[in-house]
Design brief:
Blueprint: H1 8-13, H2 67-81, E1 89-92, E2 95-96, E3 102-103, H3 108-118, E4 122-125
Parallel strand pairs: 1-4
Antiparallel strand pairs: 2-3
Helix pairs in contact: 2-3
The structure holds pyridoxal-5'-phosphate and zinc ion.
Pyridoxal-5'-phosphate binds next to loops.
Length: about 130
Amino acid sequence: SAYHGGSPYLQGLTAISTWNYNFPRGFGIHNTMNPDVFRGPYGGHKCRDTPNDSIRKCDCTQNECHASDMYIHQLEDLLSHSCPKKIAAFFAEPIQGAGGINQFPKDFLKGAYKAVRAKGGLCISDE
Ligand SMILES: Cc1ncc(COP(=O)(O)O)c(C=O)c1O
Ligand SMILES: [Zn+2]
């Protein structure tokens, strides 16, 4: 659910249906799962490091959030199965504006950046 722009190349990075149109886009770009603790498959209340919290219940035990690990595993899966051995870069939109003022779960970026750097990728935080 990231918004990165509307020009032909950036259209492929932008993974939010509201801003995607019916023309070929995203050559060489892979979109990963949105680490959304509010609407996504993992996470809920207190998974984010933010005062804007979700009312959705989280399966995590107290002080041990698994949402981040689950989304990082999904990214690692994409990196090892869909991407080439070396990648150029990873774009993140840490606080997704158009996506609903949505923040990643605690420690997600740390783990994501580690996985990306292991593949030789540059980490870009687009705010
Ligand atoms: C997070 C984010 N990235 C990229 C863009 C697009 O910026 P530009 O049109 O300057 O490429 C925007 C525009 O709103 C944005 O909010
Ligand atoms: Zn949690």
